[in-house]
Write a sequence for this structure.
């Protein structure tokens, strides 16, 4: 039982359900106390200890049926049951001759397949052995599509030969003048049985697929690779595929932020609130009131979406939106040749859909980035997007191909906003090239972070709650 | 407390709570493994009711903590009762005066007072809030932490210590351990994602809308005197309403309210007129009521049926609008 549970948990993880070690232990303890005699109880016990979000419940039910089902042959149709007595007798005779012949030729597996098609189902264990004997088990760890692997396995096991042999019997019946409708009925039953057998083969293969999932270390390594892959190696269209990675990162940042916010409550005393609270004690400060700062930041994110920056911008926006509950307000902007407010898109669409419409919101061809004029437009057109509580984050390489950004604009912004941060996906040594104005911009910002990978982006975003 | 899951179910049924397999098993495990339950699901599906039934079934007291945005330790755990402390210092002034009168120096007087200061920071002046009450209670209790998703993430972090070790620290008194481990039930309407750490410490229970059978059983149980035919019709209609694209689909509790209302009105069976006058018990938005009226049409025998023909072209527009609104609302969360 333990082994099967471990395999089951691995399969769950393979389907991207997060199961921690603590939860696996809970599951084992749960089975210990709940007992394993009642299948429904086992299912409920495992469900409540392993699954922690409603979205994963369907995956659980599906895999549970696979891993903890009773290994009985599936119900199959008794082929030829509807034939008239005489024909049925003939068919039985032919079938018996065929089976005897196969025994003589020591084709036991082929014989078993014929019997299965005629309605004597096999258990999964039996089927697995049969497949293994015939070298018909495809290697599921190679990531083969299941339907394809299933067809291969069926053919390798010799289902086509079995089918042909039975087809000969049917042909003979037809030649002997049995009612065509009844023969067709028999053919249909054969097809159904073949379908049931295929389904069973698929289940056997699926078990292997679950067990053949890459180990946790491999998955962890794959994740690390993703976290450390430079943004310029992602294409903009890939980004939604890595949403899961972003939400994992966000989950970690969220817990950290939550802990920090909790500590923030014990801060400086708030004189005004203390005096007011202590009026009833004749002004003697019996109750101290701390300043209750809402430390959730208000963000304005301004992203460069020129070709090279687009993937980084998309990751940034996904991450910020995954952290919405820790942020008081977010105003996203994108700039290229012009600047556009995309707050509406994010209100109306899911973040992963909203980032896909960004290219429609903005014009610009290669080498048309104009940071300077975009910033001037931003300052004059969106005064509501930067106030003394707002942290303004720029994400871009600092290029401007059509002018020079005005230092005065940055100074004004820094004066009005709580903080101005610059996230640059390019390493520092590239900041000196032509048309790049990072050397002008950097001194005007409260912080400059190099964020060339998701991991670095996570670290930089985490700073917002410090 | 419970021998097996069947016992749980029987005891809950005795409290007029119909428990599914997963509810009964989870409750049994929570008790056996001493772990909290996190019950999640749409509003009005009986999550809070579960805690109440559970308290009644085990004969334990129910201590309830309703969460809201901005709830903090002072409201959830404990507070020093300053007013009482102040009153005591006033009343004891003479006594204190006498005590320090003998002291030759100021330092000696301060020392004399310092020796007694734990009088004022003792449990006498501690105002226990639900969480502290639950763990210091001399008898085992059921602790219901309702709508945890409304509380801030920081409060959630604070709960972690309590839920894993069942102990809390009060700086002036030290760590207080639970006398009896309470049976903890947290509920959440899933308006925001809870932290992994909290989920890991809990057994998870998803309480969704009941099946028609279960709902019928609950209606029969909770609404005494409901005619069997009416109960059938009510449940059938509610189940169909849940299939429609409404802003807020009727919950279990609203089904019960509606059935009660119908019994009060002495209705024997549903027809158009009854539906027109009482649908507002079930649906809480005018647009939902309109949509339901359009899509449920009376059948030939005067009963009410949902008709595929009711899905007219003009519905599509406001369907889209409603869905958009709901999605936006969801995202804002």
């Amino acid at each position: 039982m333990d082994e099967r549970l471990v395999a089951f948990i691995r399969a769950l993880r393979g389907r991207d359900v997060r199961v921690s070690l603590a939860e696996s232990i809970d599951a084992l303890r749960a089975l210990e106390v709940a007992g394993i005699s009642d299948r429904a109880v086992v299912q409920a016990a495992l469900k409540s200890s392993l699954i922690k979000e409603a979205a994963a419940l369907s995956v659980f039910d599906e895999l549970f049926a696979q891993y903890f089902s009773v290994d009985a042959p599936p119900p199959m149709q008794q082929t030829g049951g509807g034939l008239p007595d005489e024909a049925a007798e003939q068919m039985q005779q032919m079938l018996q001759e065929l089976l005897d012949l196969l025994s003589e030729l020591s084709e036991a597996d082929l014989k078993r397949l014929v019997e299965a098609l005629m309605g004597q189902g096999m258990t999964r264990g039996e089927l697995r052995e049969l497949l293994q004997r015939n070298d018909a088990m495809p290697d599921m760890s190679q990531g083969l599509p299941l339907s394809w692997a299933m067809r291969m396995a069926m053919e390798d096991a010799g289902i086509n030969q079995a089918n042909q042999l039975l087809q000969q019997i049917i042909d003979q019946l037809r030649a002997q003048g049995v009612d065509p409708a009844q023969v067709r009925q028999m053919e249909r039953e054969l097809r159904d049985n073949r379908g049931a057998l295929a389904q069973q083969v698929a289940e056997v293969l699926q078990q292997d697929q679950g067990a053949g999932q890459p180990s946790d270390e491999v998955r962890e390594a794959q994740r690390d690779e993703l976290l450390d892959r430079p943004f310029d190696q992602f294409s903009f269209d890939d980004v939604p595929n890595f949403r899961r990675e972003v939400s994992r990162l966000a989950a970690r940042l969220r817990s950290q932020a939550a802990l920090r916010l909790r500590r923030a409550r014990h801060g400086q005393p708030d004189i005004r609130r203390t005096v007011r609270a202590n009026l009833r004690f004749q002004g003697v400060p019996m109750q101290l009131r701390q300043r209750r700062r809402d430390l959730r930041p208000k963000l304005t994110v301004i992203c460069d979406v020129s070709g090279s920056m687009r993937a980084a911008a998309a990751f940034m926006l996904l991450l910020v939106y995954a952290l919405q509950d820790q942020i008081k307000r977010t105003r996203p902007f994108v700039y290229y040749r012009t600047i556009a407010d995309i707050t509406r898109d994010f209100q109306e669409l899911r973040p992963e859909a909203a980032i896909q419409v960004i290219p429609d919101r903005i014009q610009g061809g290669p080498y048309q980035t104009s940071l300077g004029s975009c910033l001037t437009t931003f300052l004059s057109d969106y005064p509501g997007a930067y106030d003394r509580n707002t942290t303004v984050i720029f994400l871009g390489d600092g290029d401007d191909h059509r002018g020079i950004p005005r230092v005065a604009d940055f100074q004004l912004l820094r004066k009005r906003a709580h903080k101005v941060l610059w996230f640059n996906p390019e390493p520092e040594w590239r900041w000196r090239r032509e048309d790049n104005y990072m050397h002008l911009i950097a001194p005007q910002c409260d912080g400059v972070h190099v964020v060339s990978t998701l991991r670095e982006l996570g670290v930089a975003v985490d700073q917002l709650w410090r | 407390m419970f021998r097996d899951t069947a016992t749980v179910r029987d005891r809950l049924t005795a409290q007029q709570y119909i428990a599914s397999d997963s509810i009964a098993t989870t409750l049994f495990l929570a008790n056996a493994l001493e772990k909290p339950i996190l019950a999640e699901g749409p509003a009005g599906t009986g999550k809070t009711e579960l805690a109440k039934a559970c308290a009644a079934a085990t004969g334990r007291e129910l201590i309830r903590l309703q969460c809201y945005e901005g709830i903090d330790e002072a409201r959830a755990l404990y507070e020093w009762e300053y007013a009482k402390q102040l009153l005591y210092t006033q009343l004891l002034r003479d006594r204190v005066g006498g005590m320090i009168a003998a002291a030759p120096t100021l330092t000696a007087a301060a020392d004399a007072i310092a020796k007694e200061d734990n009088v004022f920071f003792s449990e006498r002046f501690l105002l226990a809030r639900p969480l502290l009450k639950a763990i210091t209670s001399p008898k085992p209790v059921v602790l219901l932490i309702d709508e945890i998703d409304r509380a801030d993430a920081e409060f959630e972090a604070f709960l972690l210590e309590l839920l894993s070790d069942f102990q809390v620290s009060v700086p002036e008194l030290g760590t207080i351990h639970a006398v009896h481990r309470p049976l903890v039930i947290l509920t959440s309407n899933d308006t925001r994602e809870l932290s992994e750490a909290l989920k890991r410490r809990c057994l998870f229970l998803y309480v969704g809308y009941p099946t028609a059978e279960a709902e019928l059983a609950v209606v029969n149980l909770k609404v005494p005197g409901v005619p069997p035919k009416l109960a059938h019709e009510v449940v059938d209609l509610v189940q169909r309403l849940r299939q429609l694209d409404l802003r807020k689909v009727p919950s279990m509790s609203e089904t019960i309210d509606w059935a009660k209302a119908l019994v009060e009105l002495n209705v024997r069976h549903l027809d158009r007129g009854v539906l027109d006058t009482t649908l507002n018990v079930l649906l809480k938005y005018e647009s939902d009521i309109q949509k339901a009226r359009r899509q449920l049409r009376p059948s030939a025998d005067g009963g009410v049926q949902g008709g595929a023909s009711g899905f007219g072209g003009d519905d599509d527009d406001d369907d889209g609008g409603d869905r958009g609104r709901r999605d936006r609302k969801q995202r804002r969360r």
About this structure: Confidence is low (pLDDT under 50) at residues 298-302, 306-333 of chain B. DSSP finds 16 helices and eleven strands in chain B. Chain B has three domains: 5-74+131-206, 78-125, 212-332.
